[in-house]
Amino acid sequence: MKRKTLHLLPVLIATLCWAGSLIAHATDTIERNEKQDRKANTPITTQRRDNWETRQTEKQETLQMANKSTGQMENREEQQGSNKKVQQTENREAIKLARALRRKGINDARVLAAVEKVPRHLFIDEKLSPYAYDDRPLPIERGQTISQPFTVAYQTQLLKLQPGEKVLEIGTGSGYQAAILCEMDVEVYSIERYHQLYQTAKETLNKLGYHPNLYHGDGFKGLPEHAPFDKILLTAAPEEVPEKLLQQLKVGGWLVGPLGGRMGQKMTKIERVGEEKFRKTLHGDFIFVPMQKGTEK
Ligand code: SAH
Fold this sequence. Notes:
Low-confidence stretches: 19-89
Number of strands: 9
Bound molecules: S-adenosyl-L-homocysteine
Oligomer: single chain
Helix content: 40-55%
Mean pLDDT: 79
């Protein structure tokens, strides 16, 4: 018996070694396969992370931009953990502005909601950001102004816009009023005589996701190729209402704008009640920059 076992021992050892090497090989193969799988997944994982990192960087940049312009939250650590806070702070300023406008007599809920939404500080020079949500006009390039928020809201309210209506604005300026119009769910057309302002407004609006139809041109001529319009809004003051614009109104539509000289104007609403019949009403005293003929760079 013992001898037999002794004979079998080398065979047993050989068998054990063979089985061992088989297991080792199998494990190695599994590991290698896993490694390969991991390798195969690497680009996807990295891509995802890269995207995520890009998003984080973008968020951070937006944040820094917002902080720069509002002059708030200078501490970087504070910024990092509180994207939301900035968002809320931004909104809070616009909400406060809308509340102030309501106290001053603006009662159209849709207009107030638009004021709450549009970030006015992005339509002006960074240096003026501390005043972005004050109810006052501010200078923009080429000696022009972004209208006082009350005036923007007041004129928009007078337009009584219905969703889907076609609206023409004369004097794009900063683009702020155009953004408010976009928030009212209407089809917006806007003309600016200074190419520089047209360009800047276009960039600002598009960055924010607004895509009105913008034109560099002379507002006195209107946009006959896109007429008739339901409503026309003048944000610069002509001495008298431009006849060509009245002709681009739909019957039943109206124009709202300040009419008068440099010393002051009357906010005027002119309704086209028939093909050649217009009805005029006055809505208070204002001071706007003058509407000027022609175009400039
Ligand atoms: N709606 C603007 C207000 C800008 S002030 C805003 O929200 O910022 C009025 C603008 O009308 C100025 O930019 C001025 O250049 C422009 N303007 C004056 N005369 C014009 C004309 N004939 N055609 C087009 N734009 C004109």
